[in-house]
Amino acid sequence: MLAVQRAVVPSAGWACDPLTLARIAYLEALMLLVVYCGMVMQFDVVAAVGVGLGLSEPEDWPPLFGSLADCYTVGNVWGRFWHQYIRQPSLGVSHYLIRALHIQPHSQLAYFTHLATAFVISDFFHVLSVGSVSPGFLPLSSLVAHMSRFFLVQPLATAAESIVMRLYARHVQPRLLPSLGEQKQIPRDMSGKSDGGKAASVPTVGESDGSAIPKDMPSQHDTNSERKRKALQALLRVSCRMFGYLWVLCWFVVTGWPFVKAYMHVRMADWGLPYSIFGKLVVLGERAEVLGFCIM
Fold first, then answer.
1. CA 161, CA 71: separation in Å to the nearest integer?
2. Where do the Wax synthase domain residues begin and end (predicted)?
3. Per-residue pLDDT for 212 more than 70?
4. Which DSSP string do the residues of 174-211 spell out, in sequence order?
5. How far is residue 267's CA from residue 279's CA, in Å, rounded to a whole number?
């Protein structure tokens, strides 16, 4: 079984050591898997009992977690993928703060207030829950420091993402995807006259096949340009999405370690309820030397 001292990684220069970084990522992945599976299992059991007894309808139990495909920004991880247990309570508090501080609703400052309030509340409840089992393993001051280092930096990343995406949409994307220019078309009435009373333009005869081609029909060049523009737009969308996945992975590997380390200190690997899946996976990682290293 994984002992606490074997899970703790020295803080000095840990990010520069590939083996240590891989060990951290492995433990964080186990933590995510255990929390995700445990919460989904509890939710599904209660939902099955409620629906089976006729106390509720299936639509009363939407999925607890969202899709991993949406996790290309830190904001999406918390807003679309992760559970929303404290969303409504935290919104009530943040709306009160916005009114009390006379912050303009729907502004960037109001958005950041919502984020900060939600993560402060989440930080408090995690400290409260882990603090009940931390005596003898981890001082309360260290527990608060570990949890705060994780939760209180999340709104900063989300706010930074919002600013970067706004700047990209306003300044970068228009340069990468120049518009073709809108062609003005003269509206016509049923008599063939334009709104100004002048005779509408008469279709011209094509030089090659003799077919009638309206003057305002997009040319072949414009059609090809639009196709290229759409292809470039799709390529940029996929590239940004891939970059987003990499960014989110790196962000949580770095910032998630204090959170996981706090649980390692209180010997989460030894917990047996509802079943000791975490400990079994850690032992499996030790035996298989996952990613080419041993959990030392």
1. 13
2. 61-130
3. no
4. HHHS----PPP---B-TTSBBTTSSBPPPPEEPTTT--
5. 10
